[in-house]
User: Fold this.
Amino acid sequence: MRLAIFVTTEMAHLYDLLMRSIAGLWNAEVVLIVSNKEDLGAEAERFGVAFRHLPIDSKNKSAQEEIELELLGEHRVDLVVLARYMQIVTAPRTARCSRRAGRNELQC
Assistant:
């Protein structure tokens, strides 16, 4: 499974998820990190994971969400993990996703 991690500035949560992937505790690979803050770009680079800084405010939220969806497609992401991502995920963004049968997951 190909994972994207959306995170703000909580490095501990990002490290925990990356370590679980690297240690083989999941049948998953972290292929993308998206953040509304630049702080974790160097950490993504250290782990060899693509990083995208997308600052979000009330004026650009819709446009940034479109970019997020494009990135998920480009990286063929199967699952998005919100790791202390301090942004509200809006209905228009989740409307493009489908709920996986019998699971509390969205596939976009």
